[in-house]
Design a protein that fits this description.
The complex is a heterodimer of chains A (about 625) and B (about 450).
Chain A lengths: L26 H16 L2 E5 L3 H13 L3 E6 L5 H6 L12 H9 L7 E6 L2 H7 L8 E4 L4 H14 L3 E7 L2 E7 L3 E4 L10 H7 L6 H11 L7 H4 L4 H12 L2 H25 L2 H15 L6 H12 L17 H29 L5 H15 L18 H17 L14 H28 L12 H10 L3 E4 L22 H22 L7 H17 L9 H10 L5 H20 L8 E5 L3 E5 L1
Helix pairs in contact in A: 2-22, 5-6, 8-10, 10-14, 10-15, 11-12, 11-14, 12-13, 13-16, 14-15, 16-17, 17-18, 19-20, 19-21, 20-21
Chain B lengths: L38 H5 L2 H6 L2 E5 L3 H12 L4 E6 L23 H12 L4 E6 L7 H5 L3 E4 L4 H15 L4 H5 L6 E8 L2 E7 L23 H5 L5 H17 L11 H17 L7 H9 L6 H19 L9 E5 L5 E5 L16 E5 L5 H10 L8 E5 L2 E4 L4 H7 L7 H4 L10 E9 L4 E9 L1
Parallel strand pairs in B: 1-2, 1-4, 2-3, 4-5, 9-13
Antiparallel strand pairs in B: 5-6, 6-7, 7-8, 10-11, 10-12, 12-13
Classes of the chains: A alpha/beta (about 625), B alpha/beta (about 450).
GO molecular function (chain A): NEDD8 activating enzyme activity
Organism (chain A): Cyanidiococcus yangmingshanensis
InterPro entries (chain A): ThiF/MoeB/HesA, ThiF_NAD_FAD-bd, Ubiquitin-activating_enz
Chain lengths: ~625, ~450
């Protein structure tokens, strides 16, 4: 294939996305996902295979949203039909390479963007794409079955998210594939404190400077009159109550308090559980106390031994059943200790409250109650499960945080949410959190540097990534999809309760019919409107359903007939709609915010829809 | 969200008369001919039918651009687009027909020019004007009006306009009423959006579900803002509209909602005022939100909803529009969620409800101001500029200005001093007032019962 040069260029320049300021252009969307997400978007690199109308619509949405680096891969020349269906291929472009013409036309939408075009097929792309070329996401809009599989395999190996898109007439689907995707999610409403926000504030296990500041500034409370008391920010009240429970001498003990309970319980459990299990627990707790900093190797190996006890790569981290019995026991114990402590703090606050009805008191109590009512432990959810991500850097950072957490506590969240009360005190409190967050990041970076592991040099782990993980630790989750495999239902599956989900069944029918049409078209020519072909198509779809282990009554003659009649026909609205949806999913995966589509999405005609999960 | 299956009576102070309610006959029979089995066949004629339509696109913002683009791709030849705004830099993250060099130009004219350049045979006319300024006959010349407007107020205006041109005026015209415009309304906020089809007297109109829309920042009643603020928004509005002009005497020019210093200033004053009245919740982001009246907007949601609106036009042209599920709701925050819903018409709808009457109970001692306030905040009415006439006597006229000045003094008088009627045995009296609203093209009979 000939064409313009400049195919997949190596992009190794590690740009620090913390530095730039967003432009007025993106003002209206920054309010949804924030500045840091916008910067990620502006540093993303996206490959789009296929330059027909769907591909063009995806590229359009991404360019408008601020993606500045796009690679278009296509191997066809513009036809008259293209110029009628694709808004971005005007009649003048007929005869030119589609990818080149499109790149030229799209430039207008985002003057800062670098749009590259490669004349070639999905196979060319897969062959030229080497693993050290960073791609944020790959979107396949047009290709043959075997080539899609090829790209999907390459993406799976490279841990690059992939979206497969297909529109035919009024029918279409989006199939996502990502082996693992770490998401940073905050509460949707900045005013409301989520449970995770509360945990990230670490009021129950306050850091030293916070306790010291609270004591120095507000202790004892008896010196303030009512109006002044009402001005104390509520977190301070919790910290003070926590302090009042233990005097100075026992404050030190409080840090190991929880662990002691665990240990005694573990001893008790040893009588019931196999011997190794309890020993493992012992070494786990001991290992941290004896200065993990001096021998990070050991701490890590201990840490991994306990937490990777259950190997599980494919497992969903939201699934609680995976835990072995001993860790479950330990979990229960920790939780009980926390609950006791919370009760005590609440009790103390109520004592102080006496007959005053101050809003900050009420709020502090409400927050404590929310923590007490939470069903799971206070530690970040991402660290409750085996830490073996494909992303080695992320794994290392998280492991370091876990090792350090026992000495320093969990890293605090940098941004404190809205607090009311005395403005000076609130500002000081926010500054304290920022300083502590910086210290935490520094400590993690130091630890990473002191480690001696061959694969990723500790020095090479970027500080901004560590900062991002630290300040989002409590908000992180992991999502996975199945691997795309045409022989195995394209990674899709029918929900087990599909009998009660007519949309899912309908959507599965369209999915089958569309795949059967593709397969049939590759082998035969001219399938439109012919009754013989209609039967052949139905048989093909049913054969496909059987080989995927789906029920063959999902696809009906109606599906097949509709596909036959509408296939190959231009439905501009469908291309725009599905293109926009795919672009939205791509953005979510790039900025690692919001819940991405993790199953198969089938759409037909906007009014009849369905989800295959 | 809100249960849409039926519209229950919402307010105890307002009743609706149920008798005489009949489902109206279809004005446009073609719109009802939905047969799922034949849609594949008719899809082949999609473009041919769509080409003969005359479509008005109200609003050339993000939705407008997508609607125009998609309609043109379908081959619709006669399109008009109307918008009063000019292109700003913050529009460029989603409005696909504009680019940097268009900043400062009219949205409608630029969009029309861009479309004409791409499709030589497409007859697109742009109007740089507010929809409210166009004569009714202008709207009458279109079969379908697609709206991608940015305010609830403009939507309500357009909605009532559709009903004005659809409403049969006399017996003769009712018999020949073959023309009924259809309104297709799209709206987005962040990653969520909706598109709905309004066929007059067949499906629920904007006014039927007006309580679903959030209150707009511009509509805080001034007397509340000045006298008795209750919400943090009131304090911000006060700081911006009352304190800013008085303190700066125009030295800093008008308030710029995008200027950080100005925002900080308003924030400080609003905080002070909020503290005076014991109101909590004034934040910088809320200040920005109130001042800029802006909702978050992205390219993707707008493209999806815009294309959905355009597809609806094409389906309408082909008679395969779904008769019941007229509301498409979309949410992209968590996976992709698309729902199509049916909304019942509201029988007491002031625009399309059949002869419903408004009944309001009030104390006779309450001042007229309270009644006016109630009309403004009432969830089913949400009047903009209510005017009240009783027995050919203006009680309160919000427009024109001289009349407002004359009738303003009535505002502080108790109702039983203004409306002097026959007090009956139960010590309550019923008055029939005419309620009109120049902002919404509304004219209704209102029964006021004083206790």
């Amino acid at each position: 294939m000939l064409g313009e040069t400049g195919p997949l260029e190596q992009e190794n320049a590690s740009c620090n996305p913390e530095e730039e300021t967003p432009q007025a252009r993106y003002l209206r969307q920054v309010s949804i996902w924030g500045n840091s997400a916008q910067r990620l978007l502006q540093h993303a690199r996206v490959a789009i295979i296929g330059s027909a109308s769907v591909g063009a619509e995806v590229a359009k949405c991404l360019l408008l949203s601020g993606v500045n680096d796009i690679l278009l891969v296509d191997d066809a020349r513009t036809t008259v039909a293209d110029s009628e269906q694709n808004f971005f291929l005007p009649p003048e472009a007929v005869g030119e390479w589609r990818a080149l013409a499109l790149a030229q036309q799209l430039q207008r939408l985002n003057p800062f963007a670098r749009i590259q075009a490669r004349v070639g097929s999905a196979r060319t792309f897969a062959a030229e794409w080497t693993s050290h070329q960073r791609l944020s996401i790959v979107i396949v809009t047009e290709s043959t079955q075997s080539q899609v599989q090829l790209v999907a395999d390459r993406c799976w190996e490279a841990t690059t998210p992939l979206l497969i898109l297909r529109v035919e007439g009024l029918v279409g689907y989006i199939t996502p594939q990502f082996p693992e995707q770490i998401l940073f999610q905050r509460g949707q409403h900045p005013g409301a404190l989520s449970l995770d926000c509360l945990r990230a504030m670490r009021l129950i296990q306050p850091f030293e400077t916070l306790t010291a500041w609270c004591l120095q500034r507000f202790w004892p409370l008896s010196q303030w009159d009512e109006a002044q008391l009402a001005q104390i920010p509520w977190p301070v009240l919790i910290v003070l109550a926590r302090y009042a429970i233990q005097d100075e001498s026992s404050l030190h003990r409080a840090r190991t308090w929880d662990r002691e309970i665990v240990r005694t319980q573990a001893m008790a459990a040893a009588r019931r559980a196999p011997v190794q299990t309890s020993e493992r627990n012992e070494s786990f707790t001991e290992g941290f106390v004896e200065g993990a900093l001096e021998s990070p190797q050991r701490a890590i190996s201990e840490c991994c031994r306990v937490h990777d006890a259950v190997p599980g790569d494919e497992r969903d981290p939201g699934d609680n059943t995976d835990e072995s019995t001993d860790s479950k026991l330990q979990l229960d114990q920790n939780q009980r200790a926390e609950a006791l402590l919370l009760e005590e703090i609440m009790e103390r606050l109520r004592e102080w409250q006496t007959n005053r009805r101050l809003s900050n008191w009420t709020q502090a109590l409400a927050m404590l109650r929310r923590l007490a009512n939470a069903t799971d432990r206070m530690e970040p959810s991402i660290l409750r499960f085996p830490l073996s991500f494909r992303d080695e850097t992320m794994t290392r950072i998280l492991r370091a945080i876990r090792v350090l957490s026992d000495q320093r506590g969990w890293p605090v969240c940098r941004e404190l949410d809205h607090l009311s009360g005395d403005a000076v005190a609130v500002a000081a409190l926010k500054r304290l959190y920022q300083e502590q967050a910086d210290r935490d990041v520094e400590a993690v970076c130091e630890f990473l540097k002191s480690e001696d592991i061959d694969s990723v040099q500790g020095d090479l782990i970027p500080t901004h990534l560590v900062r991002r993980v630290c300040s989002n630790l409590f908000f992180m989750t992991v999502r996975r999809t199945r691997r795309y495999s045409f022989l195995n239902g394209c990674g899709a599956s029918i929900p087990s309760n599909s009998e009660r989900l007519p949309q899912a069944r309908r959507s599965a029918g369209w999915f089958l019919a569309l795949h059967a049409y593709d397969g049939y078209q590759e082998s035969t020519t001219g399938v439109q409107g012919d009754a013989d072909h209609s039967i052949g198509l139905l048989n093909e779809a049913q054969r496909l359903a059987e080989s995927w282990g789906w029920s063959s009554d999902l696809v009906t003659p109606d599906h097949v007939r509709h596909i036959q009649q509408t296939a190959g026909r231009a439905e501009p609205a469908m291309a725009v709609m599905l293109g926009a949806l795919a672009a939205q999913e791509a953005i979510k995966l790039i900025i690692q915010r919001f819940e991405p589509l993790a199953g198969n999405f089938g759409i037909r005609r906007a009014r009849q829809y369905g989800l295959l999960c | 969200m809100v249960a849409l299956e039926s519209a229950p009576p919402r307010s105890s102070s307002m009743e609706t008369r149920r008798e005489g309610w009949l489902p109206p006959k279809s004005f446009s029979s073609s719109a009802m001919a939905f047969e799922p089995k034949c849609d594949a066949a008719s899809a082949s004629e999609t473009e041919r039918v769509a080409r003969s339509m005359r479509v008005l696109v109200a609003g050339a913002g993000a939705l407008g651009c997508e609607i125009l683009r998609t309609l043109a791709l379908y081959g619709v030849k006669e399109i008009a687009v109307i918008d009063m705004d000019v292109i700003e830099e913050s529009n460029l993250n989603r409005q696909s027909l504009f680019s940097t060099e268009n900043i400062g130009q009219s949205k409608a004219l630029t969009a029309a020019a861009a479309l004409r350049e791409r499709f030589r045979d497409c007859d697109v006319v742009g109007y740089h004007a507010a929809i409210q300024d166009m004569p009714l006959d202008f709207f009458r010349s279109f079969q379908v009006i697609v709206s991608g407007l940015d305010s609830v107020e403009a939507r309500r205006w357009l909605n009532s306009c559709i009903f004005h041109i659809a409403r049969p005026v006399g017996l003769e015209s009712a018999r020949n009423a073959s023309y009924a415009p259809v309104l297709i309304d799209g709206g987005t906020e962040g990653l969520a959006g909706q598109a709905r089809t309004i066929r007059p007297y067949e499906t629920a109109c904007i006014e039927c579900t007006v309580d679903l829309y959030a209150n707009e920042g511009t509509q805080y009643p001034l007397c509340t803002v000045v006298g008795t603020p209750r919400e943090p928004e009131h304090c911000i509005e006060y700081a911006a509209s009352a304190l800013w002009p008085s303190q700066h005497n125009g030295s800093l020019g008008p308030l710029d909602p995008y200027n950080a210093e100005h925002i900080e200033w308003v924030y400080g004053r609003a905080r002070q005022r909020a503290e005076q009245f014991g109101i909590d919740g004034v934040t910088v982001s809320l200040v920005k939100h109130v001042l800029q009246h802006s909702v978050p907007a992205v390219a993707t949601t707008n493209a999806f909803i815009g294309a959905a609106c355009a597809l609806e036009v094409v389906k309408l042209a082909n008679g395969i529009s779904h008769p019941d599920a007229t509301w498409l709701a979309f949410n992209g925050t968590s996976g992709i969620c698309i729902q199509s819903l049916h909304i019942d018409r509201r029988r007491s709808c002031p625009i399309c409800g059949p002869e419903s009457r408004i009944t309001i109970h009030m104390s006779g001692k309450a001042p007229l101001r309270e009644l006016v306030e109630l009309l403004r905040t009432h969830p089913e009415l949400r009047c903009r500029n209510p005017s009240l006439v009783w027995a050919y006597r203006p009680i309160y006229m919000s427009a024109p200005r001289p009349l407002e000045e004359v009738t303003r003094q009535n505002l502080d008088k108790p109702l039983n001093q203004i409306l002097i009627g026959n007090q009956n045995a139960e010590n309550s009296a019923e008055f029939i007032l005419t309620l009109t609203d120049s902002g919404l093209r509304l004219s209704r009979e209102m029964h006021l019962i004083l206790h």
